[in-house]
Write a sequence for this structure.
């Protein structure tokens, strides 16, 4: 088996299945009726957590490629980003369907009045065009340069996602701060690289 | 002589987790949560550990009352496994695990301030002069979920009257135990420990206000605020302070923990009110614990359905201002 076949038919599917793990887990717990006193809240937190984790994983790819000099890793970036979008979508679907029972008027009030929901929805709005333009065809149609420019708004989505979490929490900010620190390192790495490359060029 | 028969279904002695291992695991969890490594255990991570239960210690001689005769209590599994009790961790499932080794007895309560009989009272001296009553109350959390709890307790008014409040007593201040060695969640300053709460004198003396020592006919589980907690059914749950070690009758409005933590979000009164919205949660509706995943929320009632009993306490007050 060549390296390429192994990658395409074993490693990539294995990563894909691993990424489905959290969803399978939560469905299994729900089906077995073992999901706590407040299933809607539990599912909501769970899906939100994983959307944020996948987003940070996707943002970690480029710095890791630089750090470990493993360009192959780059081939997981799109998948991780799409899983971030996927879990964010489920997170919102759970909110709309189970939490709000499709009460659009209430949902609208939530988006307008509750700042953490405003920020969360804005973050999802940022992620949507990125997911839609993630195909090879779209990259071609946009052109690599414009595509890269557009996809830089993912940094904003990372900030939005962490902010959404921090604003949602009542008093214990430790967990959001852990994510914020990771995000800071991941974005900081890009800033540092940019600064050093422009100074060496100039 | 006692002869033990082994049933086939009994675990073999080798299958029983040694107590030392069990305790070690619990200590590890406690320190992990205390350090913030696992701020929220979550219903998944430790589902089996978190299986909460009642204490199994039935309270004798509990008088039935008509309070809540028309309500269906929430499953005790939920009441004992879904708790906001930050002294034992900030996740809902944390207290059921981390409070397990908490020893609520012996317990004493300091009563001071504007009272004729100040002093340190043993739990028994405080409670035993009174007839225990069961009262089934709606319990509404500010986070827009609710449950129905069959509490066992005594009216706070009866307890306070025995302490002979002076004419200067305008408010009652309550304080939770502050002991990080017994309450691992206090290792981190998530809130300004000790947790404090307060009521206006007329609220404290209202017949609905209960000093609870049990639920479901049994002694209070640790995660529900053993051995002594307040229950104010027309107010958001955070007013119902747990594991009380001090009750002070005071002249001025006392500070309260959540309103100090977030003054724009939580007020002193914290009356359940669907018309007064909160920056984080619409208070118009609530999710009933135990309802199914696809069940809708229900409408929240003004004063949590106790309008008749308490509305006059707030006559002429702007409830949007005094939230």
């Amino acid at each position: 088996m060549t390296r390429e076949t192994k990658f395409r038919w074993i490693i990539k599917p294995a990563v894909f299945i691993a990424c489905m793990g959290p969803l399978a887990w939560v469905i299994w717990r729900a089906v077995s009726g073992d999901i706590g006193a407040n299933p809607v809240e539990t599912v909501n937190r769970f899906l939100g957590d994983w959307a944020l984790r996948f987003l940070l994983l996707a943002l970690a790819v480029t710095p890791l490629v630089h750090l470990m000099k493993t360009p192959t890793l780059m081939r997981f970036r799109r998948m991780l980003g799409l899983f971030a979008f996927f879990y964010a979508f489920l997170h919102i679907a759970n909110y709309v369907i189970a939490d709000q029972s499709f009460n659009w008027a209430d949902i609208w009030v939530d988006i307008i009045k509750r700042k953490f929901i405003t920020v969360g929805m804005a973050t999802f709005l940022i992620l949507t065009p990125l997911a839609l333009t993630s195909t090879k065809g779209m990259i071609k149609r946009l052109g690599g340069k414009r595509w890269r420019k557009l996809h830089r708004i993912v940094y904003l989505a990372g900030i939005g996602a962490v902010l959404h979490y921090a604003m949602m929490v009542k008093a214990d900010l430790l967990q959001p701060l852990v994510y914020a620190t990771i995000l800071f390192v991941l974005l900081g790495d890009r800033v540092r690289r940019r600064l050093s490359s422009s100074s060496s060029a100039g | 002589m006692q002869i033990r028969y082994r049933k086939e279904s009994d675990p073999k002695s080798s299958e029983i987790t040694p107590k030392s291992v069990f305790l070690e695991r619990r200590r590890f969890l406690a320190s992990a949560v205390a350090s913030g490594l696992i701020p929220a255990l979550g219903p998944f991570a430790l589902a089996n550990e978190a299986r909460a239960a009642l204490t199994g210690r039935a309270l004798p001689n509990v008088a039935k009352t008509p309070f809540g005769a028309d309500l269906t209590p929430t499953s005790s599994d939920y009441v004992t496994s879904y708790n906001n009790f930050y002294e034992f961790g900030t996740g809902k499932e944390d207290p059921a695990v981390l409070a397990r080794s908490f020893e609520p007895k012996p317990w004493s309560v300091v009563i001071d301030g504007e009272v004729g009989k100040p002093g340190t009272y043993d739990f028994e001296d405080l409670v035993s002069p009174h007839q225990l009553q069961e009262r089934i109350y709606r319990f509404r959390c500010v986070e827009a979920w609710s449950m129905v709890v069959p509490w066992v307790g005594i009216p706070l008014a009866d307890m306070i009257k025995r302490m002979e409040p002076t004419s200067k007593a305008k408010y009652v201040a309550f304080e939770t135990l502050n002991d990080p060695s017994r309450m691992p969640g206090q290792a981190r300053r998530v809130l300004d420990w000790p947790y404090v709460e307060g009521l206006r004198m007329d609220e404290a003396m209202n017949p609905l206000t209960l000093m609870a020592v049990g639920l479901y006919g049994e002694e209070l589980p640790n995660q529900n605020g053993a051995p002594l907690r307040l229950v104010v059914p027309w107010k958001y749950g955070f007013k119902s302070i747990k594991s009380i070690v001090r009750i002070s009758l005071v002249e001025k409005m006392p500070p309260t923990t959540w309103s100090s933590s977030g003054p724009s979000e939580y007020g002193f009164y914290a009356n359940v009110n669907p018309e007064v919205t909160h920056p984080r949660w619409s208070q118009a509706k609530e999710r009933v614990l135990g309802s199914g995943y696809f069940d809708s929320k229900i409408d929240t009632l003004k004063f949590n359905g106790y309008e008749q009993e308490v509305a006059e306490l707030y006559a002429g007050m702007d409830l949007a201002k005094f939230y």
Q: What stands out?
A: DSSP finds nine helices and no strands in chain A. Chain A touches chain B at residues 25, 29-30, 34-43, 45-46, 97-99, 101, 106, 109-110, 113-116, 168, 170-172, 174-175 (CB under 8 Å). The radius of gyration of chain A is 19 Å.
